[in-house]
Amino acid sequence: MTSSHPRLALLGQHSSVLQGVLRGIEKEGLRVDEHGKLAQTPHPKTLGSALTNPRITTDYSEALLELITGTHNSTESLMAELEQTHRFVAQSLEGELIWNQSIPATLPPEADIPIAWYGTSNSGLLKHVYRRGLAERYGKAMQCIAGVHYNFSVPEQLWELLEIEGASAKQRRSKGYLAQIRNFTRYSWLLMYLFGASPAMAKDFIPDADQYLQAFDATTLYLPYATSLRMSDLGYQSNKAQSELQLCYNDLETFLTRMHAAVTTPWPEYEAIGTHRNGEWIQLNTNIIQIENEYYSNIRPKRTTGRGERPATALAERGVQYIEVRCLDIDPVSPVGILPETSRFMDAFLLFCAIEPSPSFANNGYCTDSHDNFGSVVKEGRKPGLTLVQEGRPISLADWGVELIERITPYARLLDQALDSGERHTQAVLAQQAKLTDSALTPSALLLANMRDQGLSLHEYTLQQSLQHRETLRAQPLSNDEQHAYEQMAQASFAEQKHLEEADTEDFDSYVARFHAALKDN
C-alpha cells in the first residue's frame, strides 16, 4: 500500500525544503599488501596525521583507513569527493591497496595487528588507549571489520513544518530525529537484505566459527542465505556487556540517562582486567563501555563535538544534529565501497523514516520484533519464504519489502523534484524491486555466485577485486590543483598535531580523570 499520510501531502506542498538535506560518508577500509595480507606499516606520511586530517584518518587499527567526506547537498558532489579522496589514497599507497570487503579474509596473529597511533598529545593518547581497551574486551580481529557510515540531516524548517511538539527548536529537532531512528529500527532489516554484502568469512577469522557456519571451500566459511555476517551476533553483539545494554530512542533524556549508566557502571570482567598493566594504560576504565562510541548500534543520534568534548555532553547541551547509519557493508563492486544509487536510496529511505508516523516503543523502549527481524535477515535473509514479524503478525520478507518500496517511492519523487535530479532517486528506489522478486540479484548472493563460478576463496576473490579497483582509481590521476590541496591538508594536519602536543601541559592521568569527570558533571 502506498503511504497517504497527511505529512507526505504537506511535504509535497513544501518540497523545496528538501534542498537543505545534507549527507556525508565515512568509509573504512583495511590497508593490505599486494598479497592481501594486513599492512604492518605505519599510517603513510603522505596521508597526513591520523589525529588531525579531517578527510583521512584511521579507525581501530593503524591499518584501518577511514576516509571522510564533508556534508553535501547532492549525491553527485558527495560521490565526487569520496572518489577523489580514494584516488589520492590509491596514488599515495606504495605496494599497498585498500581491501574492498567488510570482513578481512586473512589476518596475522592478534599480537601482530597494530593498534592505531595518534601521537603523544593527550587527545591522541586517549584515542589510542581507548583502542587498547577494545582489544582487551573484544579482541583485535573483530575491530578490523570495516563498513560504510552514512550521515544524514534535514533542515530545521522540516521539523517546524511537521509541527513537532517541544518548547524549543532544539527539543523539536531532537524529537524529530529520535522518531526517525525509531522508524529506522523498524525497517532497517530492508537495508541488510538489499545491500548486505558479507555472507562469508575466512575460516580462522573467529575461533570455532565452523560450529555456526558452513564450509564454502578449504579456507572460507559462510551461511548459504546470509546477507551480512558483519552485522550478525557472531561479532560484536556476542559480547555479554554489549548485549545487555539496551538504549531507548523514545526520548533524548532516557537515551542519555542509559548511556550515562553504561559509561559509569563497572562490569566485573573488565574490573578483573584493570586499567593498567606493567605500569601502562590498557583501557580507559572498567565500565560497561569506556566511552559513548563503544556502543555498537546500527544507528546513532549525533552532534558535532569539540576536541575532548564527550558526545553525550554535546547531545545534552545542544541536541541532536544528524543521524549516523552504521550498518552498511562495503559494496565489493564499487571502487569507493558504495554506489551512487545506494546513496540515493538511503536518502529516500531516511526521509521516509523521518516523515512517517513513528510511535514510541513499548517494553521499556526496546523493540524485540525489530531486533529479531534484523537478526533473521543478516543470517538468512535470502531463505525462500522467510517470514518476519510486522506489528505482531507474520509477514513474508518479500511482501513487506515490496510494501516498503511502494511507501518510500513518493519520498524519492519529492527529492527528485526538489533537487532537480530527473528521476534518479525514484529509479534508485524502484530498482530494488527486482531484488525482492529474485534474491539471486542481491549483493550477498552475487558475491557467493561469483566466488563459486570462478572457483575462488573469499580471500582470492576480494584481492582480485581490490587490485582491479586500485587500477581503476589510479587510471584517473587528480589534477595538479586537487593533488596540491590534499598535500597541503596533510602538511597542515602534521602542524596541528605538533601544536597540540606542544600545548599540552597536563599529565595524561589527570587528563583522563578530567575527561571522565566531565560526564559526571552533566
Task: Report what the structure shows.
It is a single chain. This protein is an alpha+beta fold and 522 residues long. The protein has one domain: 2-Layer Sandwich (Creatine Kinase, Chain A, domain 2), CATH 3.30.590.20. Helices cover 45% and strands 11% of the residues. The protein contains 19 helices and 14 strands. The strands form 4 sheets. Strands 1, 2, 3, 4, 5, 11 and 12 form a 7-stranded antiparallel β-sheet that branches. A 3-stranded antiparallel β-sheet has the order 6-8-7, with no helix packed on it. Strands 9-10 form a two-stranded antiparallel sheet. β7 and β8 form a beta hairpin. α11 packs across α13 and α13 runs antiparallel to α14. It is globular, with a radius of gyration of 22 Å.
How do the helices and strands line up, and which of them pair or pack?
Elements: H1 6-13, E1 22-33, E2 56-58, E3 64-68, H2 75-92, E4 96-98, H3 122-138, E5 148-153, H4 156-161, H5 169-187, H6 189-195, E6 200-202, E7 214-215, E8 220-222, H7 240-243, H8 252-264, H9 268-273, E9 276-277, E10 280-281, E11 299-302, H10 311-318, E12 322-328, H11 340-355, H12 368-380, E13 387-390, E14 393-396, H13 397-419, H14 424-430, H15 433-437, H16 443-454, H17 458-474, H18 480-503, H19 508-520
